[in-house]
Design brief:
- It is a single chain.
- It is built from 14 helices and 14 strands.
- With 401 residues, the protein is an alpha/beta fold.
- The chain folds into two domains: 2-147, Nucleotidyltransferase, domain 5, CATH 3.30.420.40; 197-381, Nucleotidyltransferase, domain 5 (2-Layer Sandwich).
- Strand 9 and strand 10 (213-219) form a beta hairpin.
- Helix 11 crosses helix 13 (339-346).
- The protein is globular, with a radius of gyration of 21 Å.
- Bound molecules: adenosine-5'-diphosphate.
- Adenosine-5'-diphosphate (ADP) is lined by residues 210-212, 239, 285-287, 332-334, 337-338.
C-alpha cells in the first residue's frame, strides 16, 4: 500500500510517498515559490539522484501536478501509474475543537476546517487548497486529515482556558489549542518504547525545538498542557516569534512606534522577535548564534540564555503540573542537533536529579538516552517523524472505513 503525505503551506507543497508494507520512504520533496513564476521542485527519490527543476505552479493544483509528474518521471520517478497511490494523508494545522483525532476527509470535514480558518489564517487556507487540489486530481482516492491541534484536545479546561470572560470562549472559541501535536505524539510514544513502559503509564515533557518551538506535558499518554495557545505565537521564545508577552506591551509598541496592532503583531512579534530580535537581528539560526556566542558575541549569548531559561521554566511548571516525570524529550531541528542547547537546559535541571552523560549528549539526529544510569529522570533525544505518523494514521483510517 502506497500512501502520499501532503503538507501545503502558503507558497510551498511538501510531500513524501511511503510504501507502507515496510514504512519505507520511496520519494520526498518540496515545490517552493508556489503562486509565482519562479516555482521549482526539489525531488529526492530514495536510492536515485536528486532532481531540482523549474515548474509551472501558479496554484496548489499545478504544484501537485508537478509532484505527480516527478513521481511518474521515467528517470527520477518511483511509480509507474498514479493509481498505485492508495490514499493521501493531509497535514492540517488547525481543527479547532472539532477533531480530537485524524479523520477521513468528507465534505463536512472540509466545511469544519473552513469554519476554523479564522483561528489559523496563514495555515488553514493553503491546507484546504491542497485537499481540494488532490480531490480534483485523484477524485476516487481516499484522503485523511491529520491535525496539529488534535493531540492536545485532551487538555483539561483549567489548562486550556485563558483568564478571559468565559463568554469569549463560548462565543468565539478563544482558548489554548496547542500545535506540533503530531510531533509531540510521535516522540512521546517513542519515549515510552525506549523506556520500556506502557504509554498510558508514562509521563514525559516533550520539547519540540525548531523554527517554531513548543513544549507539551504528556501524562499517561495524554497531552495535559502545552505552551502554544490560540495561535502558534505563545510560549517559548522562538526563532523570530516572541512567545509569552504582557499583552500591555502591544499597546505601548503601537504608541511608541506609531504602528497598527496588525503591524506590531505581524512585523514585530511574529517576524522580528525571538532569538533573532534578542541577538540584535544577528540570526534566527542556532548554528550561527552558537558560533557567534563562542566567539564572544554578547547578544548571541543573551539570546541563547533567554531561550534556554524559558524552556527550563516550563519544564519546572509542567513537572509540577503532572506530579510525576519519567523523561524529558528533545526533538525538532534544535532539540535533535544542538548538544549545546540541550546541555544549557539540562545543567539547570540537576536539582530534579538529572545527570547528563556528556559523551552521549554529543549525538546529532539520532535516538539516544543522554543521561547517566544514576539520573533520576531520563533525558532523550528523539528525531521527530510527523510524516510517518500521518502515513500510519491514513493507512489505519482507510483500512477501517
Ligand atoms: P521547522 O520548525 O521549520 O520544521 P526545524 O525543526 O527543521 O524547523 O529546525 C530548524 C532549526 O534547527 C534551524 O533554524 C536551526 O536553528 C536548528 N538547527 C539545525 N541543525 C542544527 C545544529 N546542528 N545545531 C544547532 N541548531 C541546529
Amino acid at each position: 500500500m502506497k500512501i502520499l503525505v501532503v503538507n501545503c503551506g502558503s507558497s510551498s507543497v511538501k510531500y513524501q510517498l511511503f510504501d507502507m508494507t515496510d514504512e519505507s520512504v520511496l520519494a520526498k520533496g518540496i515545490v517552493e515559490r508556489v503562486g509565482s513564476d519562479e516555482a521549482f521542485i526539489k525531488h529526492q527519490p530514495t536510492g536515485k539522484a536528486k532532481m531540482q527543476t523549474k515548474v509551472e505552479a501558479r496554484n496548489h493544483e499545478e504544484a501537485l501536478k508537478a509532484v505527480f509528474d516527478s513521481l511518474l518521471d521515467p528517470d527520477h520517478g518511483v511509480i509507474k501509474d498514479i493509481g498505485e497511490i492508495s490514499a493521501v494523508g493531509h497535514r492540517v494545522v488547525h481543527a479547532g475543537e472539532k477533531f480530537s483525532g485524524s479523520v477521513p476527509i468528507t465534505r463536512e470535514v472540509v466545511d469544519a476546517l473552513i469554519e476554523c480558518q479564522d483561528l489559523a489564517p496563514l495555515h488553514n487556507p493553503p491546507n484546504i487548497m491542497g485537499i481540494r487540489a488532490c480531490q480534483s486530481l485523484m477524485p476516487d482516492v481516499p484522503m485523511v486529515g491529520v491535525f496539529d491541534t488534535a493531540f492536545h484536545q485532551t487538555m483539561p479546561k483549567e489548562a486550556y482556558l485563558y483568564g478571559l470572560p468565559y463568554e469569549l470562549y463560548e462565543r468565539h472559541k478563544i482558548r489554548r489549542y496547542g500545535f506540533h501535536g503530531t510531533s509531540h505524539r510521535y516522540v512521546s510514544a517513542r519515549a515510552a518504547e525506549m523506556l520500556k513502559k506502557p504509554y498510558d503509564q508514562t509521563s514525559v515533557i516533550t520539547c519540540h525545538l525548531g523554527n517554531g518551538s513548543s513544549i507539551a506535558a504528556i501524562k499517561h499518554g495524554k497531552s495535559i498542557d502545552t505552551t502554544m495557545g490560540l495561535t502558534p505565537l505563545e510560549g517559548l521564545v522562538m526563532g523570530t516569534r516572541v512567545g509569552d508577552l504582557d499583552p500591555g506591551i502591544v499597546l505601548v509598541l503601537c504608541e511608541k512606534l506609531g504602528l497598527s496592532v496588525q503591524e506590531v503583531v505581524n512585523g514585530y512579534l511574529n517576524k522580528k522577535s525571538g532569538v533573532f530580535g534578542l541577538s540584535n537581528y544577528l540570526s534566527n539560526d542556532f548554528r550561527d548564534l552558537e558560533e557567534a556566542a563562542a566567539k564572544g558575541n554578547e547578544f548571541a549569548k543573551l539570546a541563547l540564555d533567554v531561550f534556554a531559561y524559558r524552556i527550563v521554566k516550563y519544564i519546572g511548571a509542567y513537572a509540577v503540573a503532572m506530579g510525576e516525570l519519567d523523561a524529558i524529550v528533545f526533538t525538532g531541528g534544535i532539540g535533535e542537533n544542538s548538544f549545546e542547547m540541550r546541555k544549557r537546559v539540562c545543567d539547570r535541571l540537576t536539582f530534579l536529579g538529572i545527570k547528563i552523560d556528556d559523551a552521549a549528549n554529543m549525538i546529532k539526529g539520532k535516538e539516544m538516552d543522554l543521561t547517566t544510569p544514576e539520573s533520576r529522570i531520563r533525558v532523550l533525544a528523539i528525531p521527530t517523524n510527523e510524516e510517518l505518523v500521518i502515513a500510519r494514521d491514513t493507512k489505519e483510517i482507510v483500512a477501517r472505513s
